[in-house]
Fold these 3 entries.
Entry 1:
Amino acid sequence: MTTQLAGHLLVECLIAQGVTHAFGVPGESYLAVLDGFHDHADRIRFVINRQEGGAAFMAEAQGKLTGRPGVCFVTRGPGATNASIGLHTAFQDSTPMVLFVGDVASDARDREAFQEVDYNVFFGPSTKGMAKRVERIDDARRIPEYVARAFATAMNGRPGPVVLVLPEDMLTQTVDATPLPRVEPVQAWADPGALRELRSLLLASERPLVIAGGGGWTPQSAAALQRFAENWQLPVANAFRFQDCFDNHLPQYAGDVGLGISPALARRIRESDLILAIGPRLGEATTGGYTLIEAPLPKQKLVHIHASAEELGRVYQPTLAIQSTMNAAARSLEVLSAPPGIAWGQWTQACHADYLANIDVANGGITLPGPVDMPALIHTVQKLLPADAVLTNGAGNFASWLHRFYRYHGLAKGFKTQLGPTNGAMGYGVPAGIGAAILTGRTVFTIAGDGDFLMNGQELATAVQHGAKTVIVLLNNGTYGTIRMHQEREYPARVSGSDLVNPDFCALARAYGYTAERVTHTAEFEPALQRALAAPGGALIEVMLDAEVLTTRGTLSAIRNKSR
């Protein structure tokens, strides 16, 4: 057995877990780990970021894309606190992730040393929204144990983030330990009796509706869900920003349940007599502020299937609760025998017809001012992007154009196509897209707002340095659109804190090494997107929008006038 630096052993443990990329901003607190990355550069790549928030978002995207923990390295104090936004995203999105934090040396601990933070307090489970587990490795010989446990914790039950704290002096110890074998997630199978009860509830139903989402989905489980829906002719809606759980092109698809939900779908959920929630935790965005499905006791019968026992019954008291991981649940459901005749066939057809009407560009429901037709732009994106393209977004009203009018290909086709933060984190789309390009090499399309882009626009430097190509469409309306929308509803015509004075985004993108052009009319967009897709490197298209074009369902003036 060869003695080596603990920092090198840590890198070998990551390789043993199948990690090919780690994202981070370097820090003097984990130089021994950086040296380990140097030694193993042929097997694992350390992607250098420009800000820890961007690095954490890339790691979160890695977890979404691969189903295994995304990995992020940051230094103590400011580095860790910067990364907390990605950790919060991973927690609320149920994404497996491990954040490694280089820390002060052991002999300086608990003295408020330079950049010292109590990570158990800052990230600990008591925060109910940061990390599933926080641990500090004081004994270098136990690095393999801690890393394996972190990966298991991140993947098992409800997936989520884990924090491992690395004292600087521990990483420079010499150690003769070896990595533990690769950890695989545990599959929890549904109780056969519960499945029989679920079947009975379905047979007694007249207006059932499936809501699919949450973490833990794979191409195999998504394909099994599809077969279940086809066998039982069930309408399927996808939870907020999990629109690729079920193929939007299938005749059973009913739409997405989230912010800006179709009024017709919201009505269908309220009219349903049985909600089958497979995977989502049924958070505020998916339930319309706990109104579409009322908490704690829904008006509809509710079957809630989730990987975590702690999640079942936490907000809603379901008619039937089933603890099961998505692979196991979907495989159990696909063999659930359907009757020869289904009572709700017309209901399912009507749900799908509602969805098609909602995305019909010619019947968008509003007349938008200005020379840019946003539904037409998204139609062009749909036409030109390959089926396996990864689409990313941050948070803001701008994302609703993609959510409403783009038809996502399902995970069942073998690839994840949507990366979006269910916790509403601004600045997610740009770094998530760059991370996706580095990891997959597939076409990556990012939609951003002017406010959203400047949260993490610096990561274009990361893209150029690591040869990652993304296409970014930046919608510039000179305002924090979501905040302006709420202002006009609550305090009409009293604008405060939401107007923006922006830089020349095209010049900024070119300074980083992206190509860039500005679009002011609908007809200019398609050739611009064709050029961007054909370019050898990253490209930004700035679309100039009138501030009146505030949402997919109403203009700024209409919202203001309605509120007066």
Entry 2:
Amino acid sequence: MKQITPASRALCAFAAALSLTSTAALADWRNDPIYNQQYQPINTCQGQYPSYWQDPNFQQMWAGQTLTNVPNQAYNGPVFQLSDAFPAQPVDDKQAQAWRDKRFDALFAESTSAKDKYKLALAYSEAVMDYILAGNVQRQGREDFDVCENQVRPWFHMPFQTYDAMSGREFTHGLTREAPVTFSVQAGTGTDQSTMWAVAIYNATAAYTLGQVWQDGSAQVPSENIRFDEGAVIAKPLFNTSTVAQLPILTNMPSWDANISDPAFCACKPSDNTRHECTLQEESQQCPRSYAQWGDVKLLQFDFAVKDSRARDTGWVYGTFVADGLRKAKEKNPWQRISLLGMMWGNDTPPAGHYAISYPQAPRENGFQEAVIIWDSVDELNKYAGSGRMRAPGHLGCNQRLNGPADNSNSSCMSCHGTASVPDKNFDTPPLLSQFSGDQTHQCVAPLISSTRAGIDRGGDSAEVKYQVAFDTVDATYFTNVGAGEPFNMMVENEQGQKVNLMHDSNAPNYADDDTKQWRSLDYSLQMSIALKQWLQWQANTQLDAKQRAHIKELRRNLE
């Protein structure tokens, strides 16, 4: 049973104020002098988990590594703290969530016109962003998105994104290293190699679910599917290492001096060529961090995810804002110099026999059933691109499904997050994108005119059918609408009518206590999957000498 600290007790009061509906129940907690009807700001950063990679309070986790992610005595900037005093009971913040108004029901109705969906998507996303920014930015004497003592509502972080020396949280703002991206810029194609760094925050509704897994400095690895509650909100600003000369859209955007590694995405090579993975010590040596040498990162993308049951087939709404600092230079709040790129609540799954790369037909002209794309934002992003169309900042995803500049053009926000699963005993999880597995038929492929067994994906790479699993079969798997809290299905029918596992080389999942061959769903939370993998790696490494410790089978972050 989780110990109830003063911080978590105060959060219980917040939960009660929001979620109890009966008069009798309301009276019970109001009689307790500790509780009152209004949210009382408290410090939600309790230090149960490491706040960042190489956190001095958890030295055993980074023993023997080269120190580059710890503030020294000369440093006088912000130091990140993990918000981890999770609510001990469910929380419903409905009264503050304007997007839950009935007028937005029409957004999810097939009969609503594209024009009306466009207007509703703009209003819905604006309401979500107002909710996210309240109390988190432009506060006197506090760093933006320092959520420890938010005066409006509490926000929390995912624990244990700190054991991966290559990507673990940096100490200034809690950013984790995300995708390497190469943008086509006006000076040429593929000339701007950069890196994404991001930090996600969870409202109290979402954090209650986090608290079912992360308890008292440990992890209770789920033995069954998990599911977030209605009204859960996850927000994630993503920062890029490019300069405004390379990407003019970054002009006038929020900028942080962060303790990052090489902006061009540092990689590590094992000193022993018989090993596929670097040790954690090697990673710390070969990819040092610096806030003085590299430092500056600028807001490029801002993602949100909202649990909304009106999204009938998925239970989630995903949205992406993008930098728009040139057109919105006069906005006093720099965090509002963003524009909506789009929203989606489903993948517009291609029917049997159709390819995701060409379904639905002409989405810019005809629209999507389960998404809205703001084409004005797409055009503004692409205005500053060079000749490489699929590396333009406004490349979107497969057949122009929603994906931001930081994301992969062969995927979509929801097709990626729908794979989120509990790692099995071999640290395996489903590939976020079929291309991330070396042993699967690729997704979002247009077959050649002369053959259905070879083709080119939307990123321009060649592809071929493997193990007799056709391109449209993989599309139907990755672009299906995975239900909230339902397992991601990797069992498909090949061209011979046989049931096969797309993860041919591992036959995963292999859970120690279950042989059903079904993934355990993490309800679209890739961050939970990443964090659990790091936790399990730490548990496996505790018996090893520090020189032998490695983080193997790292979950690719290109679409996180």
Entry 3:
Amino acid sequence: MNKRLFVLLIVLMSLSLIGIIFVQGYWINNTVENNEEQFSFNAKQILTSVSNRIQYREFEEMFFPLREILDSIDEPDNKTIRQLLDISVDNTTKSFARANDILEEDHKLFSSFINLDIDTVRLKNILNRNTDSAERSNQNDLMKQNSKSKLERIQGLTDLERVDYEVVIGEIASFIPIHRRVQEREVEYLLKKELEEREIKVDFEYAIYSNALATKVRSDDFSLDYPTTYAIPLFVNEEGVSEYQLYVNFTGKKQYVLSSIKGMAILSILFTLIIVVAYSSALSQLMQQRQISQIKTDFINNMTHELKTPIATINLALDAIKNPKIAGDSEKIHRYMRMIREENKRMHAQVENVLRISQLEKNELNIKKEKQELHDVIEDAITHVSLIVENREGYIKMHFGALKTTILANDSHLTNVIVNILDNAIKYSEDEPKIDVYTENVKNSIVLKIRDQGIGMSKVAQKKIFEKFFREHTGDLHNVKGHGLGLTYVKRIIDDHHGQIWVESERGKGSTFIIKLPLIS
């Protein structure tokens, strides 16, 4: 795939994923805001309904005593007004007393402070309309009127009559303290009822204030500083003015708003995470496949070069042998035959490494293990490369410090492992190869260290040195051959022997390969 197209696809996919996440976040946030607005709308309706019910309940309780007084008098004077106030307040207070066990002594003490500032003109208008209504009604109508329920009698009032009564009742009720006009249990009951009717399960705190001053009607944990406090006026007069305000804190509002979208939000986040994980995995696989494709291309090119050289050498040697001038020189023929044999062995070793890795990946390589002495295996491996080291005027020194060397291993494969490491030490030494081999016992294991003084490797290479096809770039060092399979094979064999292998290296100072194998008794 073209590199630019590959990058463009990744950018488009990433932008699409970011867009999906952004849209999901926007949807969740927008839904929360809509739910909060809906909750606020419901809260205002609830408070309005509670306020209307409280005011209607007070009107209903005081209307009938007031109606009886107006039906029994001809002209309201001061004496009548005092009688009206006393009886009305008495009836109202008794109604409260039945709900809250208020003592009669409290009512008598309270009644002595009542102001007689009542609108007598409005009382006369109510009385006159009441008298006219009575004259127009016959006895049967009165009997029917009395037989009606209280609710029907209140609903039968005209709008004008109702307003007149509301004004007078409001004036009378204004002399009663708010904690006797409204009870805590009533507010709590009405709020719960309204919430249940709307299927809203949320906790709340409430309080009634009089011109910004707290009254006795309040719940224990109410706070006016709560972030979301809703308010509604209580006992509004005909001019729309009220001395009292009902405040309510819905303390469980946040949980309620979030709970309504919690299920969908969790599913949305879950599916988004799945998409992110799938995208990351797909991208990782795509990068790996691209890297593997590049590595395979490099491997084919490198392998072609590795095979092309010995093939060319063999062809040249065969041509030389066919030359009549060389045919009679047995020494040169023997030399060319030896070259053909070495190059053939080299090609065979390269192909064998590829087959070994393939078999290891498919778990088809049958490795039979027997008791072996590691020192013997090391010495055998050194003999395979000793001539090459001597030819380059280098050395391999053995420093055997381990006293216990018996391991369970496959002699052939373990020898190949050590030969591979020694071969790398020789390849990556610019000058004469200088190699030291150490052994030591660590608890129930034997540790083998192969140290060279070659060119070393970077930190990145140390992490990837055992990966398939990996070869570090060596600059101008052209004599280093290979295709990056040797150390992969080494790692697989050591793992199969239940051992460990790692490398310690520094640029320009050489490398040390460390192998740790379990001992057997």
